[in-house]
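Tutorial, part two.
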Amino acid sequence: MSSKNWKNIERKVARFFGAERNPLSGGNGKHTRSDSLHDELFIETKYRVSHSAVTLWKKTKEMAKKEKKIPVVCLAEKNQNGFWILCHSDDLKITAQNAQNKSV
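Running the prediction step on this input gives:
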């Protein structure tokens, strides 16, 4: 994998969140080890051929599509509070809006 590919993904992710890519992320960063220069979010971007959580999301997407719903995968660990939410970036805005409207 060329360095250009993962750097492009880091740029795309940073822009999605209204930030810039940190050119010196990881151990070389002087201000932050985050992959972005976001003021509030510490963003870690992983660029791989596949991720097991994304494989689960893709299976969930097929089922959700049949019901005309947005696929969301929630991951929880035993004896831990809270959970992680995985949804596609295209669906994030509408998913967050729907969740906020229902909690009001």
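The radius of gyration is 16 Å. In part three we will examine how such features are distributed along the chain.
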